[in-house]
Every structure is written in structure tokens, then in C-alpha cells.
UniProtKB/TrEMBL annotation:
Name of a matching Pfam family: DUF308
Positions of transmembrane segments: 7-26, 32-51, 63-85, 91-109, 121-138, 144-161
Protein name: DUF308 domain-containing protein
Keyword Membrane in annotation: yes
Keyword Transmembrane annotated: yes
Keywords: Membrane, Transmembrane, Transmembrane helix
Top-rank taxon: Archaea
Length: 176
């Protein structure tokens, strides 16, 4: 039964990936609207937390209140705003890319042996790839293409993952 679920999820991911590639602006708009809605819900939760912690810590309560207001404003701004979503996605990719490059360079100089140098070199290469992807993420069409390709690859990968592998991962992640 679980194997059937994997195949069903894989088919669904591939179909969604094809739809995202076929209708890029609608797909990015949908993701932007969902992200904005989720951030607004987070802001509401932070506001609720601010009232709940008022008696215990006024400083924490004020921090929750400020973060909640900022999250609600950001969520409203992000809701359905394709260019803002693309901008934030590309900024995030740039940030991760620079982090990978810097940590890769540090690994090249700090680690000894082939494996250490290899992991450092791989960090630099992946960082450069992230920066290249960040450049393409500025355009909503390319962002939708990247999301669609990821969904298709993930969907195809689900065809090859056995349910016992997933169950083994879940058991190994449980605290002892």
C-alpha cells in the first residue's frame, strides 16, 4: 500500500511540475499567494503569543508583537506579488551561494586530505551554481521553470524510493 502511495505522489509531483512549467506566471502567483498567506498566519500566531506571554515577560511579549506586525505586513505585501516573491527567492539563493563559496574556500585551506579538499571544492562549485540560479530566479518565468524541474525530478525520484527506506529513515530519526 505504501509503495502505491509513493507512485501516486510521484505521479502527482510530475504532473504539478509539468503544470508549473506550462503555466509559469500562474504557478509563481499561486506560490507567492500561499507564501504570503502562510506568513500572515505566522504573524497572527505571533500576535496571539504576544498576548499570552505578557504576564511572564513584557520584553518577550513586545518582541512577539513587533514580529507579528512585521510578519502580517510582509505577508500582505507578498500575497500574490510575483516580482517580490522572485526577488526574495533570488536573494535567498545568492545568500546560500555566497555562504557555500566561503565555507568551501575555508574547507580547501583548513581540511587535509583528498576528501577535505574535495568537499571544499564541491562547496565552491555548488555555491557558484546557487548564484547562477539566483540570477535566473529574478525572472518569474525562470523561477517557475526551476520549481517545475524540481517537482518533476522529485516525482521521478519517488518512483525509485522503496517504502521500507522511508520507514527506516523515520525510525532512525526518532529520539532514543
Amino acid at each position: 500500500m505504501a509503495e502505491g502511495n509513493n507512485i501516486l505522489l510521484g505521479i502527482l509531483a510530475v504532473i504539478l511540475g509539468i503544470l508549473v512549467i506550462a503555466f509559469p506566471l500562474f504557478s509563481v502567483f499561486t506560490v507567492s499567494a500561499l507564501a504570503g498567506f502562510a506568513i500572515m498566519l505566522l504573524g497572527i500566531w505571533l500576535l496571539v503569543q504576544s498576548f499570552g506571554t505578557w504576564g511572564a515577560s513584557k520584553a518577550a511579549s513586545i518582541a512577539y508583537l513587533i514580529l507579528g506586525i512585521i510578519a502580517i505586513i510582509c505577508g500582505i505585501g507578498l500575497f500574490g506579488h510575483i516580482l517580490l516573491f522572485s526577488f526574495l527567492a533570488s536573494i535567498w539563493l545568492y545568500f546560500v551561494g555566497f555562504f557555500l563559496i566561503i565555507s568551501g574556500i575555508m574547507s580547501l585551506f583548513a581540511k587535509e586530505g583528498t576528501a577535505g579538499k574535495g568537499s571544499g571544492g564541491m562547496g565552491v562549485i555548488l555555491g557558484i551554481l546557487y548564484i547562477i540560479l539566483g540570477t535566473y530566479a529574478w525572472d518569474p518565468y525562470y523561477l517557475a521553470l526551476l520549481i517545475g524541474i524540481w517537482l518533476i525530478i522529485d516525482g521521478i525520484a519517488l518512483f525509485f524510493v522503496s517504502p521500507s527506506d522511508l520507514a527506516g529513515m523515520e525510525k532512525s530519526e526518532m529520539p532514543k
